[in-house]
Amino acid sequence: MKNWNYNTITVIGLGYVGLPTAVIFAKAGLKVIGVDVNPQTVQSINSGRPPINEPGLQKLLKEALNTKLLTATTDYKYAIKNADAIIICVPTPIGENNVPILKYLDLALENVSQFLTRKKLVIIESTIPPGCTHNHIVPLIEQKTGLKAGTDFWLAYCPERITPGKSLKEFIENDRIIGGYTHESGKIAEQLFKKVVKGKIYVTDIKTAEVAKIAENTFRDINIAFANELALICEKIGVDVMKVIQLANTHPRVNIHLPGTGVGGPCIPKDPYLLIYPAEKLGFKSKIIRTARMINDTMPNHVVNLILNGLNSVGKSIVNSKITILGTAYKGGVDDSRLSPAKEIINKLKALNANLVVFDPYCSETFGARSEKSIEEAVLNSDCIVLVTDHPEFRNLDLVRLRKLMKDNPIIVDGRRIIDPNEAKRHGFQYLGVGYGN
Fold first, then answer.
1. Helix pair angle (138-145, 103-115), 10° resolution
2. What is the predicted pLDDT for the residue at 116?
3. pTM for this one?
4. Is residue 1 part of a domain?
């Protein structure tokens, strides 16, 4: 197969996946046209202000704009007609009854199809259910264009493997999977991604790639569910789950994840449902995957029960007790609150008439609770601190200082197990943690 020359790449969807994709290809020397349906997003990007907070992103964006290798637009006609390759990076969430929502993907495909011509490469980077390319994407494009996938244009699936906070580094360094609609489509897409990816690239058929992508996050969800159930067992029998996991993981073939307040973010809570959706339509009944999702979804409620137990142990009622929530982002070190366990914890505490205040040094989302600008203000006259997010700033709290600011008989509920229980107790706190059975 001859080498394929790329001059211009169009990236559709300039969010958490699309914008890093665009700036990295621009840094590699390709001309990139970014497309988004939101004019404010386009204006912000063209002004050098990325709409998402990602380390190093603003610097790369400004470099790409200064070299005129990147521009953002809402004009699909211009973006598709001038592109050699089109990369689609739109969200694919789940909706009611955990059914995949493909309307954003469909909108992108319909706009691409209006202006798609022969010999272009179309790559789907969005996470999709197994069989989506064959059963949904190809029929839509072929019907709209009259072109044949794999003959008139090339089509491949190259799912993202990045996490917020490390997107740029992981895009370049992580291994990638490419699924080709045809063998030639896969190899041409591989040529493109070799321009920016330092890790290995594995080329396979498109349906296998679809399953492999969501199998990765489903495995992580199941592992976390095991850790969470193990934590609940340890609480009942009086053992510290963190010591158990530390010792169990010394076995060379064991790698238990950590328990916590629940599972959030744009991928892990969603991808298991994408995996089982097409199989369940054909009569398959999931046991392990759905059970894991149920376990992880119950953890916010368990954290609330720990709060209630802690208050009860010192003779306090939840009504009007001041509860300080530390962290609303779904994980430490990022400002991303998508599907954060904090939302359900806060909503349940509000329904119990607690006096809530939140503090997050990264994330502005409060889920309807009052927020404070400093941790000192947040814990002043508080009855209970709840660690929901494992931000680096929360790992070394000044417990002596916080204890002086709080009311008598203060409580720490450690949903992320980042506080030393013995240190908390030594400084006068009642300590409760997920999986802490001592």
1. 30
2. 97
3. 0.94
4. no
